[in-house]
Specification:
The protein has 154 residues and is α+β, with helices and mostly antiparallel strands. It has a single domain, classed as Hotdog Thioesterase (Thiol Ester Dehydrase, Chain A, Roll). It is built from 2 helices and 6 strands, in the order αββαββββ. A 6-stranded antiparallel β-sheet has the order 1-2-4-5-6-3. The longest helix has 22 residues. The protein is globular and about 50 Å long. The mean pLDDT is 89.
Length: 154
């Protein structure tokens, strides 16, 4: 099921921050991502001393902690009627993130997300990002919706 969910992610390689989903159920998701040393955002942030931008850390947390779990929950809904040209489109509606440590190029991070609620198509999760030493890097509350859209090929 995890690979099935990953195939629905709407991100290309340079902006897909999910390597592996190690746990996925109706209440939580756990996944990993290793930051590439040659990622585009390290070139200028900061010159000579690259550090992962907070917005990228937030995006990693959102992709694993909200989007993967949200798609899993939406695809489980029997009334969805998923058609061949349908795609799932994630919309982040709010975040409240606190940062505690920096993340360097090449580091592997783990995201742990626990569902707070999922109703009326809206998902709210408490999300943590840990470094390879299992130390807390960032934590916060994320909310969003997963919309089903039909892409017509004319």
């Amino acid at each position: 099921m995890n690979n099935h969910i990953l195939s629905h992610l709407p991100y290309k390689s340079s902006f897909r921050f999910v390597d592996n989903i190690s746990l996925l159920n109706e209440d939580e998701v756990r996944g990993e991502y290793t930051l590439r040393n040659d990622a585009f955002f390290y070139e200028d942030h900061f010159v000579g001393n690259p550090v992962t931008p907070g917005v990228i850390i937030t995006e990693i947390m959102a992709q694993i902690g909200l989007v993967v779990l949200g798609m899993f929950l939406v695809l489980k809904e029997p009334r969805l009627n998923f058609m061949e040209n349908d795609s799932l489109f994630p919309l982040l509606t709010s975040t409240d993130v606190s940062f505690y440590k920096i993340v360097l190029p090449g580091q592997k991070v783990t995201v742990i997300s626990k569902k707070q609620y999922f109703r009326f198509g809206k998902l709210k999760c408490y999300v943590e990002l840990l470094d390879s030493s299992k130390e807390l890097v960032a934590k916060g509350m994320f909310s969003g919706v997963i919309k089903k859209i039909n892409i017509k090929n004319d």
